[in-house]
Amino acid sequence: MERTPVIAALEAGVLTLTLNRPQRLNAMSDALIEAMNHELARARDDADIRAVLLTGIGRGFCAGADLSGGGTVDASTNAPPDLGAGMDRLFNPMIRAMRELPKPIVGAINGVAAGGGANLALACDIVIAARSARFDQAFVRISLMPDLGGTYFLPRTVGDARARGLAMLGKSVPAEEAERMGMIWQTVDDGALMAEAAKLARQLAGGPTLSYAAIKQAINAAATNTLDQQLDLERDSQRALGRSADFKEGVSAFLAKRPPQFAGR
Predict the structure, then answer these.
(1) Is there a common fold for 6-205 and 209-256?
(2) What whole-number distance in Å separates Cα of residue 230 and Cα of residue 223?
């Protein structure tokens, strides 16, 4: 029997999800994606969860979809696979759940993030990577195209020209170069990765949760909105936030020159 594919631990408002298939560099099996979808639904519905930290165990963050057989992507048979069916059933719901989650997700990338694993990382809100990590759009090497939102995330983080080059050439990008390109937020020494990522996740968990949800919604919408539409969205969200208990607390703390105590309400 396969070990638990995703280890979940909740502490101080942070739900840490650790991909746990080190023997396959945490390649995504059906069971792993199902576990991720379950935990993302839990994070959405549980008020005690105020931030998510996603990482991998072992030498890699995630090597993409598991091509070894027995799952949605099965390259071990001669029958032509229906990759779209697996995307509809598992992969795409996971990415949608991550982007729509009204709570921040921190990605701690501890090693190679290849193929769908690279785009799983980019679906996080804030990505911190170990210096030894790399991001690899490997799809073209097996005659596929980036999925899990890769063709959406890449142009918006690194620009059109670089996105096309990365996708068509299958180039591997070291973590420090990914930071310079604007693909990720920060690179840290390998030994400091989890401490820094956990510190950031705890900071977010103690922050104004409603603000994070509004920020995520607005940035997601900005890709297709006109300026007028985006200004209206900002107006409507700001109106709702201005009625929140956390806004009242934030203003009171500012005037009293003390740290705010946000409750996520």
Answers:
(1) no
(2) 10
* Closest to 44 (Cα-Cα) out of 209, 221, 239, 215: 209
What is the C-alpha to C-alpha distance for residues 191 and 14, in angstroms, rounded to an integer? 21
pLDDT band at 76 (very low <50, low <70, confident <90, very high): low
Q: Would you say 148 and 116 are in contact if contact means Cβ atoms under 8 Å apart?
A: yes
Tell me the pLDDT tens digit for each residue of 129-172: 999 999 999 999 999 999 999 999 999 999 999 999 999 999 89
Token pair for residue 89?
């059933």
- Asked whether the beta carbons of 45 and 8 are under 8 A apart, the reply is no
Task: Please report the DSSP string for 105-133 in residue order.
Answer: EEEEE-SEEETHHHHHHHTSSEEEEETT-
Please tell me the CATH code under which domain 209-256 is placed.
Answer: 1.10.12
Question: Where in the chain are the domains?
Answer: 6-205, 209-256
Residue 2, pLDDT score: 64
Beta bridge partners of 187: 129
Looking at residue 43, its amino acid is: A
pLDDT of residue 75: 55
Q: Are 187 and 166 in contact (CB under 8 A)?
A: no
Cβ neighbourhood burial of 18 (10 Å; 0-12, 13-18, 19+): buried
| CATH class of segment(s) 6-205 | alpha beta
Give this prediction's pTM. Answer: 0.93
Amino acid making up residue 85: A
Question: Burial code of 129-160, b = ≥16 C-beta within 10 A, e = fewer?
Answer: bbbbbbbbbbbeeeeeebbbbbebbbbebbee
